[in-house]
Amino acid sequence: MKRSTINKLVKHGLSVGVTAALSMSTLAAYAAEPIKVGLVAALSGQSAKSGEAITRGLVIAIDEINQAGGVLGRPLELVRRDDESNPSKGLLAARELIQKEDVAVLFGGLDTPVSLAIVPVANRMKMPFMGGWAAGTPITQNGAKENYVFRVSAVDEVVDEALVQYGIDNYAMKKPGMLLINNPWGESNEKGFRKALLARGLEYSGIERIESGDVDLVPQLTRLKEKGTDTLLMVANVAPSAQVVKSLERMGWDVPVVSHWGPAGGRFGELAGPTADRVHFIQTFTFTDTQSGKGGEVFGKLQAKFPEIKSVADVTPAVGIANAYDAMHLTALAIQNAGSTQGSAIRDGFYRIDDYQGLIKDFKRPFTQTQHDAIGAKDYVFTHFVNDQIVPVQ
């Protein structure tokens, strides 16, 4: 709301409806200079749904915060840039948001390579960088003496433990094969898988690399099949994951596929076809038809804000919404604790968060100087696509 609009409302008298919606603290917040928060994410291309989901989660949280009076008496304002899933473009976008838009905090998107490109700049410029999706372990565990990177999302090393255990518990997995995207995200998970398998005394049949633009994975899958692979451990985003499913169908190979959460980032159900449900992948949160409590409350706000959302099927991927929603509320608490928008003060403000009852879980001391990841091993759920909707595996 513009200052001139507020002055007119105050001068001519607020209506009963407006009075109920806008408390004096809210009016004061809207009259103040906004605190800008930046988002660098995939807003176009095959992973655009991920950027849309993150945006929705941030917007709902920002609306709630602003309606409650803002932070430090100031409203929050979201400024977005499209990284097109490209590290170079993501880095340029981050610099623009930091240097030209003067954002107080930067939020990241789906792609680990993009986030890894931004991390050194964020640390060097003392810019708090909050990860809301990308799961690469080195994003937060980056070795910086002064680490400004936090995350409300999955962590590869922890996810890999969960994926391996899921394969053992549900498919009696004894000889898995790895299908890994050929980039730093795939490399991060290879290390995690090796560690998780070694700890359980299991060997892997082989490791095959896939590219984002691959349209035929039969050669890689054939090599794994010939080595006696009994379960596929997959790490890739939407498009290559869909091609894995199509290639398996062409081969007639009915092998279980246990996946990182890459398929959730876009139109996987549509792209993979009728056997998309064979891929079981990890999530931090899902909306359900019977959602109540915090989930039902947030879902109602999503429907009110975005009329195109008719059912829970329309909030795919829910994980992006939930991660971003909780990340924004935790970031607001950090800024409030800091008492300013100065980067180092906000970083210390994250460490002073005691409790936040979030959408994913009740966060208790989510961050410490040695732990910058708020999501742990007990916070994951396994899901799959059913009729283009992500639902928990029964």
TrEMBL record:
Residue span(s) of domain Leucine-binding protein: 34-373
Keyword terms, alphabetized: Signal
Domain of life: Bacteria
Signal peptide: 1-31
Coiled coil: none
InterPro entries documented for this protein: BCAA_transport (IPR051010), Leu-bd (IPR028081)
Any Pfam family matching the protein: Peripla_BP_6
PANTHER family: LEUCINE-SPECIFIC-BINDING PROTEIN, PERIPLASMIC BINDING PROTEIN OF ABC TRANSPORTER FOR NATURAL AMINO ACIDS
Protein name: ABC transporter substrate-binding protein
Organism of this sequence: Vibrio ostreae
Source taxonomy: Bacteria, Pseudomonadati, Pseudomonadota, Gammaproteobacteria, Vibrionales
